[in-house]
Each structure stands twice: as structure tokens, then as C-alpha cells.
Amino acid sequence: MATTTHEPAPAGKSPGGSGLSPRQRQRISRAAQYVLFVVVVVVAISAADWGRIHEYLLDTKALDGMFPDLLTVALKNTVLYTAAAYVVGFVLGLIIALMRLSSVAPYRWFGLVFIEIFRGLPALLILILVAFGLPIAFPAFSNPPGGVYTQVAIGLGLVAAAYMAETIRAGIQAVPKGQMEAARSLGMSHTRAMVSIIIPQALRVVVPPLTNELVLLFKDSSLVFVIGVSATQIELTKMGESFATQKADSTPIVAAGLAYLIITIPLGYLVRRLEARQVKAR
After folding, report:
1. Is the link from the previous residue into 106 a cis peptide, with omega within 30 of 0?
2. Does 31 map to a domain?
3. CA 202, CA 191: separation in Å to the nearest integer?
4. What is the pLDDT of residue 209?
5. Domain count, the chain
6. Neighbouring C-alpha atoms within 13 Å toward the C-beta of 76
7. Which end of the chain has fewer CB atoms within 10 angstroms, the N or the C?
8. DSSP per residue over 116-159, as a string?
């Protein structure tokens, strides 16, 4: 009986009979994706009504009166709101994270309830409760030091603290237990070991997500409009919306968006660099 022999496929060729190696198929697939992307972009550009885009989104005449206040007032206030809320969120988040890790059950319960509440409620609702609910419950809070800045710091800070607490807790738990055991063997108290050894190491681990939280807070500062602000306390989104209404044109909103990008793009780049550095360190 005659036997058939199967000759091996030539080197670099697919045994399936297509005559293409996996690398060649990958190149063809990638080229097809590039072509599809270019086609979609060309179709979108061709279908857009550039006359209306220029009239309602890119009309520089609609920006009359916005500058330099867009940068010197609105952007400055946005940064101040963000920085104040971040400081409150970080300090409170660190405390809540330590409570979540505490051996005292009521502390753990309080930390868990805090996180669940302020992660579950919308930031807009919390700002309203802080601005209008707290003065009802505590009349002394009707006119707090710092005014709107304090209200925003507390409102957005509570939201940020709930997220930062979980991030910091994960960072603390990522530190090897041997670090604490070594510190205690040297005679350090638990508190001293946490402050001097564990927390600094944990914060280095969670710097990228904490920086990302700063970006999110910067965007959440756009919610400040709900509590009412004066012309000197206005932030980017409110200024863009006000001018867009006055001019019956959306170009001021585009300008406000670009002002946000002045801060968020560098922060995003910083987050990526920090993450890359951590990967290399491992």
C-alpha cells in the first residue's frame, strides 16, 4: 500500500495553506485597521458642517470680555477649589484608611459606613447638603471662614476622602508585614512604626492613583455653580456657560474646556510617568 508523506511547510509560511506567516497576517490586519481609521476620519470631516462649527464653536468674537478673567479669575478659582478639596480629602482619607485597618471594631465600622455613604452619593448632592443643609443643622456654619471656598473644600473633600481612603488602605496592605514586625522588634510602638515606616512606603505605592484623584477633583470643581458664586468666586464651567448664554454661542464653553486641559493634560502625563517609574522599580 502506497503511503503519503506530508512535507513540512516552508519556513515562515503558515501550515494552513494561506501562504502567509502569522507576522504577515498581523501586518495586513494592522494596515486594514489604519485604512479603516483614516476612512472614518475623512468621512467625519467631510460630513461636518464647518460653517456652523466656526459660527457656533470657534467664533473668537464670542470671547470678547472673557480674557484675561478666564485665566486670572476662573482658572485660579478652579485650582483653589481643587487644592482645598484635595487637602481635606487626603487628610481625612488617611484617617479613614487607618480606621478601616484598626483593631477596634467601632472604628472599622465607622470607616466602612463613611466610605459607602460618600462613594454612593453624587458629589453634586453632597455639595448641596454642605452648603444648605449644614447651616440648618449648625447655624454657626451659615457663614464659615473662607465662605464658598470652605464649603467646596468640605463638600468635595468628603467625596475625595472616601475614594482616597480605599486607595491608601490598599497601599498600606501592600507593604510587607515583615516591615511592621521588624520595626516592632526594634522597640518601636505600633503608631511610631506606622508613621515612620509603613505609611511613607504605602504613599509611594499609591502616588499615581492619588494624582489621578486630583485630576478627577479638578473636573468635579465644575459643580460649584450649584451653591451660587459671585463674580470673584466663579470657576471655569460657570464662566463658560454664562458667556455662552450671553453671546448665544458655544465658543466660550470650548474656551473653558481648553482651560481645563491646561491643567489636566500635564497631570495626566505626570500620572503616566509615575506609573512607568513604579513598573521599572519592580
Report:
1. no
2. no
3. 15
4. 87
5. 1
6. 10
7. N
8. HHHHHS-HHHHHHIIIIIHHHH-GGGGS-TTTHHHHHHHHHHHH
Could you tell me if residue 50 is inside a domain?
no
Q: What is the CATH number of the domain that holds 113?
A: 1.10.3720.10
With respect to residue 83, please indicate whether it lies within any of the assigned structural domains.
Answer: yes
Q: Whole domain around residue 215: which residue ranges?
A: 65-281
244 in Cβ contact with 253 (< 8 Å) = yes
Res 93 pLDDT > 90:
yes
Whether 135 maps to a domain, the answer reads yes
Give the containing element (helix H, strand E) for 73: none
pLDDT at 136 exceeding the cut of 90: no
Contact 275, 208 (CB under 8 A): yes
* The dihedral formed by the CA atoms of 226, 227, 233 and 239, expressed in degrees to the nearest 10: 20
In whole angstroms, give the CA distance from residue 169 to residue 157.
17
Query: Model confidence over 145-171: pLDDT tens digits?
Result: 888 899 999 999 999 999 999 999 998
